[in-house]
Design goal:
The chain has 377 residues and is mostly helical. The protein contains 15 helices and 2 strands. A two-stranded antiparallel ribbon has the order 1-2. It is globular.
């Protein structure tokens, strides 16, 4: 016999959002302006992710075990003009891509994280390290003295590649969403969510692999037989690491252990995109500022016009971009929640509905301190 929802569930502070998801709606309420904002910011984000993806993959393949990669942001195109633009900061902020990669690497989770601790990985990394430093007795000796140093760098390179492959798919999904909006096919927030969900499902089993070429020979670091896939081994850990947990922003919180401002348990971290206050954007040491700076260059005109009508117009443009981006990330999260649900969320079967309720309550418990209500005001 299936239990009906208890009073405690009915008193859940986010019960409205549980019911909203069960009706096929999204965490973000449906309105014409929200649709315009979300599609517009995801178009800009898609362009930026394309650049991020290309650089991460380039770094993993062509900067493999380069201990001082001074030119890793140049994608192999080093010239005086590029150097001037780089020094003048007239460029994409690839540092933000590395921030997300490091968050995934640090928080771990999923089959990729597990594989990088296996003997199989260590053997493949060892072969690549020996090939990379062949004829360099200093570094080979250093590797024997500190046997964990270079394998750890290979693990980092694996995350460079995996995140680059993940963002490659997401960039295409967001650009296609914008094209469909321009053609009048996307008019409501649930349609935005369904488009993202369809894209995630279509590439769910896409293999995540990684190999490097050293002196004309290919060394597989993550070969196909490991069985890593796009959805469960990159998308899900990314949502956990970047949307939910994140890392504390320097300058906004004390890293002093005696101050107890940072939880001792990584699972308790709530510094991700779904929790971040948009107001500090623009401050020193705030990584999302780099992303907002990148996206501001690719805003579609219709989104720019919305920002122009606000009280401060462009005086707080980065804050407005961050608030809009947060709306879009709740749409992406809705797609992830819907896709990972044990049963279709609109099911009428009592047993399936009860299982879904338990599943959704788990999510909503994590959203209590998020900005889900703030974005819907």
């Amino acid at each position: 016999m299936v239990n009906t929802p208890t009073k405690s569930l009915e008193r859940h502070p986010l019960i409205d959002y549980i019911q909203r998801l069960e009706r096929g709606e999204a965490l973000l309420q449906d309105s014409p302006q929200n649709v315009t904002e979300v599609v517009g910011i995801l178009k800009s984000y898609g362009v930026v992710l394309d650049a991020y993806s290309r650089n991460l993959i380039y770094t993993s393949q062509h900067q493999f075990l380069v201990l001082f990669p001074f030119f890793k942001y140049f994608n192999g195109d080093v010239s005086p003009s590029r150097l001037v633009k780089h020094w003048w900061h007239d460029r994409i902020n690839f540092e933000y891509a590395e921030y997300c990669m490091k968050a995934m690497f640090w928080h771990g989770g999923g089959a990729l994280d597990e594989y990088l601790d296996t003997p199989e990985f260590r053997q493949r990394a060892k072969q690549a390290i020996q090939a990379r430093w062949q004829g360099n007795p200093f570094l080979l000796t250093l590797n024997k003295i500190f046997p964990e140093f270079l394998p750890e760098q290979v693990r980092v390179m694996a995350y460079y590649s995996a995140l680059g492959q993940f963002w490659r798919v997401m960039s295409d999904i967001f650009i296609e969403l914008s094209d469909r909006y321009d053609h009048g096919e996307i008019q409501h927030i649930p349609q935005v969510v369904q488009h993202i969900l369809d894209g995630l499902v279509a590439d769910a089993s896409r293999p995540i692999t990684y190999q490097v070429e050293i002196r004309g020979q290919t060394y597989p670091i993550i070969p196909p037989e490991v069985g890593l896939t796009f959805l469960m081994d990159t998308a899900v850990p990314y949502v956990e690491a970047v949307f939910f947990r994140g890392t504390p922003f320097p300058g906004t919180i004390s890293y002093n252990a005696q101050a107890y401002q940072i939880p001792g348990d990584q699972a308790s971290f709530t510094y991700g995109a779904l929790y971040a206050d948009p107001l500090p954007v623009g401050g020193s040491g705030i990584p999302p500022t780099l992303l907002m700076q990148d996206m501001r260059h690719y805003l579609p005109d219709y989104l720019h016009q919305i920002y122009q009508t606000t009280q401060r117009q462009e005086d707080d443009l980065l804050v407005q971009i961050c608030a809009t981006f947060q709306k879009s990330m709740f749409c992406v999260t809705t797609a992830a929640i819907t896709g990972l649900a044990p049963h279709p969320l609109n099911t009428t079967d009592p047993a399936e509905k009860a299982a879904n309720r338990e599943y959704l309550v788990g999510w909503m418990n994590r959203f209590i301190t998020s900005r889900v209500e703030a974005i819907n005001r």
